[in-house]
């Protein structure tokens, strides 16, 4: 067996930067990370929602822990871009909007408090948002607008940059899945094995069902539907100044998110929208495979696209499509970042917001794996795992 100081299983938004930080610290690292499937419908997995072109990035959040992680990660985007030669960050501005009353009043109050400490974040009412940005929010909505420092990031480019920089620092990329772990020994899909002094399990939504951890993390994996509206070049140009948007539609008890026009790998421009409170949960590898072999829930998709048209009056769409997504919610509301024993560290629990701040969570994963305390890194909350 080939031997390493650390084996990081999972090359997503947390695992890839964790491997980079470990390799750049001089450790011998293996990053076990299967490539993106050519077509989900033909793949047995593992699956990952970060195989996408855009995720919202912003400093403002309803929770100061997430806001701090975001700020630290965003501050490092330019270094990652410069060293990798990849475009990761697109500064289009970011708008968060909510209502002061109703079921999400505390959420609104939370992001407004955080926004008061973010340089350049301005409060706008619904009329100002419509006049300045062309976005039709519910009457009475209050928002925070980051004209600078917010926008969107490309998770594929981020993952590629982190992986390439990890390799440049000496890490070995293992482009296949891990199927088992016994102590520091990891078995791969082809039957071969790797020996590691320590293993970091960063397998996202699969962490609850892949058997690589000593117990099941207390987390819920939600099957989510996302919707895409394809735009003509002219309509994309008309909407080119749109910011990333998180808002609560009138009468809703949860928020939605929408990206500005983004060019996807097929060369077309798309608006993407998502956000869902309930829906099916995923508890096994088979259920995950079945979900990602489909195209999402058509009823959820129709509601999302209707709200897209409501918030963007006059929107002209060429075509619409839906897609599957999976979101992990931990019991604590924060990632699980903990060295469990001499053999394994857990690094999972994105809570629907990890793409933009994955670099920081990956850094903290490296801190934990090497025996440090992530809660001593300037955060008011710890990141200890909870278990079912």
Automatic annotation (TrEMBL):
Alphabetized GO MF terms: oxidoreductase activity
Start and end residues of each FAD dependent oxidoreductase domain: 5-355
Cofactor: FAD
Keyword terms, alphabetized: FAD, Flavoprotein, Oxidoreductase
UniProt-listed Enzyme Commission number(s): 1.-.-.-
EC class name: oxidoreductase
Coiled-coil intervals, chain numbering: none
Domain of life the protein comes from: Bacteria
PANTHER family: FAD DEPENDENT OXIDOREDUCTASE DOMAIN-CONTAINING PROTEIN (PTHR10961:SF10), PEROXISOMAL SARCOSINE OXIDASE (PTHR10961)
Name listed for the protein in its UniProt record: FAD-binding oxidoreductase
């Amino acid at each position: 067996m080939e031997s390493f100081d650390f084996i990081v299983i999972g090359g997503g938004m947390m695992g890839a930067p964790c491997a980079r930080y470990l390799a750049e610290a001089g450790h011998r690292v293996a990053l076990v990370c299967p490539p993106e499937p050519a077509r989900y419908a033909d793949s047995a997995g593992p699956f990952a929602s970060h195989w996408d072109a855009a995720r919202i990035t912003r400093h403002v959040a309803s929770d100061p822990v997430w806001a701090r992680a975001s700020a630290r990660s965003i501050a490092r985007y330019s270094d990652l871009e410069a060293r990798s030669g990849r475009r990761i960050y697109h500064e289009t501005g970011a708008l968060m909007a909510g209502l002061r009353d109703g079921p999400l009043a505390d959420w609104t109050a939370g992001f407004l408090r955080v926004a008061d400490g973010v340089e350049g974040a301005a409060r706008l009412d619904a009329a100002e948002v419509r006049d300045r940005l062309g976005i039709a929010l519910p009457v009475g909505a209050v928002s925070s607008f980051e004209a600078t420092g917010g926008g969107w990031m490309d998770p594929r480019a981020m993952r590629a940059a982190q992986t390439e920089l990890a390799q440049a620092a000496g890490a070995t990329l293992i482009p296949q899945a891990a199927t088992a772990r016994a102590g520091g020994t990891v078995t791969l899909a082809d039957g071969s094995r790797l020996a590691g002094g320590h293993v970091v399990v960063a397998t996202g939504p699969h962490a609850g069902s892949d058997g690589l951890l000593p117990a099941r993390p207390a987390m819920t994996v939600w099957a989510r539907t996302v919707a895409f509206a394809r735009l003509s070049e002219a309509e994309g140009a008309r909407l080119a100044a749109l910011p990333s948007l998180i808002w609560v539609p009138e009468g809703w008890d949860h928020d939605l998110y929408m990206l500005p026009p983004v060019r996807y790998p097929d060369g077309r421009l798309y608006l993407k929208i998502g956000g869902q409170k309930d829906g099916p949960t995923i508890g096994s590898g088979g259920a995950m495979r079945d979900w990602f072999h489909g195209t999402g829930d058509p009823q959820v998709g129709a509601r999302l696209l209707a709200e897209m048209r409501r918030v963007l009056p006059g929107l002209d769409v060429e075509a619409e499509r839906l897609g599957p997504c999976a979101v992990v919610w931990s019991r604590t509301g924060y990632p699980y970042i903990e060295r469990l024993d001499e053999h394994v560290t857990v690094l999972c629990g994105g809570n629907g917001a990890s793409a933009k701040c994955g670099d920081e969570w990956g850094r903290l994963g490296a801190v934990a794996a090497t025996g440090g305390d992530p809660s001593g890194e300037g955060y008011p909350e710890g990141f200890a795992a909870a278990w079912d």
